[in-house]
Amino acid sequence: MTRPERANLTEPLESVTAFFGLLLLIAALAGAGLVLFQPGAGSFSSVCVNAPSVSMSDSGWQPVSGFTARPGAALAVAGQLQACLNHPGAGQWLLYYLMLVPSALVWAGVIVLLWLMMRTARREGPFTLGVAAAMRRLGWLILGGSVVASVIHAVALSQLLVMMMNAPSPWVGPAWGAVRGVAPVPLLAGAALLTLARVIRLGSAMDDEIKGTV
Hints:
Elements: H1 3-7, H2 13-37, E1 47-55, E2 68-69, E3 73-78, E4 80-85, H3 90-124, H4 129-164, E5 165-166, H5 172-182, H6 185-213
Antiparallel strand pairs: 1-4, 2-5, 3-4
């Protein structure tokens, strides 16, 4: 493979990865700036979450059906049933950020591993053991990271809903949301990467055997 071919080997994935990496960095800096310099402004003065099992078209959110706010919380409809806590404590803030941070960390890791895989492909070529290893790590991160982040999100959301309102089944919606968070795209993408890693590893081994017999 010539140098120009290898330089363009990872396009357009490289440009897309750089774009989303830049967006993630900007979002992280903006969020950190708001937390540090405007801790009491806007949405940072309260914790609000949506109950994923109840939409605006449902009548089941009415208090007569068992959905009532706990002391210190308020319920509203904004596309979905929304519960807000105006004076959250440290525990509520911890649960709120547990809903957001794990998935962001997973996708930051995906961007980093994608960049490392593309760098390996440019340096060693596409069908090498290094690329197979990088692809395998990426596949496991997407599979395992998506599952872990979805479970943490579901548990944190369920706990917040329990703290904010009385509901017949406050954990059903978050649990279903966790299932939707990993299926089908993360599961298919992770399985596809692991399979391709095995194919590339086997092809690289066969290529070494052929070279050894020539």
